[in-house]
Amino acid sequence: MLIGDGILTPAISVLSAAGGLKVNSPGISTDVVVVVAVIILVALFSMQHCGTDKVGWLFAPIVLLWFIVIGSIGIFNICKYDRRVLRAFSPVYMWRYFKKLGRDGWTSLGGIMLCITGTEALFADLGHFPLSAIQIAFTVVVFPCLILAYSGQAAYLMKHKDHVFDAFYESIPDMVYWPVFVIATLAAIVASQATISATFSTIKQALALGCFPRVKVVHTSKKFLGQIYIPDINWILMILCIAVTAGFKNQSQIGNAYGTAVVIVMLATTLLMILIMIMVWHCHWILVLIFAGLSLFVEGTYFSAVLFKVNQGGWVPLVIAAGFLLIMYVWHYGTVKRYEFEMHSKVSMAWILGLSPSLGLVRVPGIGLVYTELASGVPHIFSHFITNLPAIHSVVVFVCVKYLPVYTVPEEERFLVKRIGPKSFHMFRSIVRYGYKDLHKKDDDFEKKLFDNLFLFVRLESMMEGCSDSEDYSIYGQQTQRSREGLQQANDEGTNTSYGMEQTISSVESIIPVKSPLQAYNTGSSGQMSSHTASDEVEFLNTCREAGVVHILGNTVVRARTESRFYKKIAVDYIYAFLRKICRDNSVIFNVPHESLLNVGQIFSV
Question: Is residue 411 part of a domain?
Fold first, then answer.
């Protein structure tokens, strides 16, 4: 529903602002207003790639000026037309309103809801401003100015009842009309920016939970984690926003759709808040009951009112939400099933150790980089590959990419290398860690960095005293038994790819020592004794590298079983397959050349 809100907010905000053209110049047609609104929307979405960090310095002055202007106009109208309007603060008038209008008064709550829209997306502002700044701004500036603005419009309508449909622009004094129109348009752009950022944030969180297809996320600020830009979602939002604006052409039906989205977002937020109070904060049941009772009473009242608006445009956010929900559910289901298949079918270390030094296969010159999401064990793709093709490269490196919730990972801490099996197997595992800014562009030097750290590991391993042929040593030559067990447990307990990923990150980070890896060098006699062995293996690795490097990517195809129902076949065989096809792949991120890319496919039925 919040994604739908991100589509409807720019549409109604910009269309409302552009509507001021028609108020001042009645000869302008509705189509012209719509065209102007569409042009503004295209410009708005086109500048998203610049990032809020670069243009955000304009937002605060615009918003502050906007509230000062509408508050001042409100005071002017109250003093000029009817000061008695301030009596509306009395709850008695609310009772009289409902008593007089009955059902019509009740259904009007759906429109009244538009007075407080924007509060449902306050969390997006936390990506740009401190919490105290938001609290002070809303208490000192936003709330008083809005009260004055609406009270001023009410005072104006007491004398001009026929201007009810364009009360805001009609109530503006003629001498300041066009400056206010410009400020209103700029304020509409800022308001739209907030909900667009909220939509990006929602998509990012769904992506982190494995509930949304992998899309490119660009972080536009070093200071604030919440300032992101998602190109694919940005253009989808723009197309849908233009479609809504051009389709409805008026604020009334878009307002009904907007109110429906906002009320449902608030209602869902309250229900989730109740769960947090119970399960996270462990609040007393009386406090939870008071919060739930008051909040659900108010929001339930508004929700019951917007139900009457479903057939008058309120169906739009429901359709949008249903579409995105279907995509998210199908992707999550397919991802979980695929990850479970990889976890349950991974090859045990006993199977690897039971093979001969040649792994019972022909070892051809070269290095094979096998990409996998598993940080422990040998992926099923490896056994699948050697079963169908009785040959494997002289050196095999299992590459596992993990994403950390930090801005960047230093180069010296990015690669974590381990050995799999005896040295004669020439098999390694490399866990590659990236921060959220590191993959802003393609990693052109990924292959070179990987081999540099692999060579460093071989030298350090040979120079450490008491070195054994096991997985107990990282690139820093330190024993990591406890960390490896935690890493194994994290992957075994992960319910989806991203969950296992986050748990793995915590375990992997514990392996990293504070000191530099170069400090792990031992200049004693044991290091001198093993230097010849290290040189031989490094020379062997270089020879294999010169022979050729092949990037092997697994492509597990999820298919519905033959006896599955038709809707499951449609969801898995078509929707999920399509989403997998269009989402980003590791070969793109790591700039893997096509001539050295090998996709190994296997079919898994669910």
Answer: yes
